[in-house]
Design goal:
The protein is an alpha/beta fold. 30% of the residues lie in helices and 29% in strands. The strands form two sheets. It has an eight-stranded mixed β-sheet with strand order 5-4-3-6-1-7-10-9. A two-stranded antiparallel ribbon has the order 2-8. A hairpin with a 6-residue loop joins β9 and β10. The radius of gyration is 16 Å and the shape is globular. 30% of the residues are buried.
């Protein structure tokens, strides 16, 4: 059965975006973390996004700047199958993208179809909804040592108690970022 996992950058105060919806605070990669990112891009997963994150990703990864900056990651992002969760979009311009209007029903269907795993990139509200429905199998957090004071909080939309166990940690010396992989306990 395919697993549903999430990869999201979080500030120390639990925000995945600042008060203006921005994420510039999360883009402080050093060469070690860039190598980690390239390794993650080699997976054979389907990518899932909420509409806002999808539009941000679709405006960057197909560009020459993305290919120049991180060629392996750009290739993987562009070639991977993508699902954008949206009730308002009627078409998606980024290659290999399908629109899923019903997050919970769509996630249940994907989890039972025998295909590759599903990785949600960013998309905090999608992650929270899947947590509430008991459909998130793994939470991968890149903890960035910054406090934003205000912003979109990942667990602000979670309405149930969930215990997590830590299955992996990795620190990046130059940035101070820490990657933590959790699974429900």
């Amino acid at each position: 059965m395919p697993t549903v996992s999430s990869f999201i950058s979080l500030s120390l105060d639990g925000c995945y975006a600042d008060a203006d919806g921005g994420m510039n605070w999360a883009h402080n990669q050093d060469p070690e973390q860039a190598e980690f990112t390239r390794g993650n891009a080699k997976g054979e997963s389907r990518l899932m996004f909420g509409r806002t994150t999808y539009e941000m990703m679709a405006s960057f990864w197909p560009t020459p700047a993305a290919t120049q900056m991180m060629p392996e990651v750009a290739k993987a992002m562009n070639e991977s199958p993508k699902i954008v969760v949206s009730r308002t979009m009627s078409s998606a311009g980024w290659q290999n993208t399908v629109i899923e209007p019903d997050l919970i029903a769509g996630a249940r269907k994907l989890k039972s179809d025998g295909g590759p795993g599903i990785v949600i990139l960013g998309s905090g509200s999608v992650v929270a909804q899947l947590m509430n429905a008991g459909l998130l199998d793994e939470l991968q957090v890149m903890l960035v040592p910054v406090s934003l004071g205000a912003g979109k909080r990942l667990f602000g939309g979670v309405n149930r108690h969930i215990s997590w166990k830590t299955v992996e940690t990795r620190s990046f010396r130059t940035t101070g970022n820490t990657f933590v992989r959790y699974r429900p306990a």
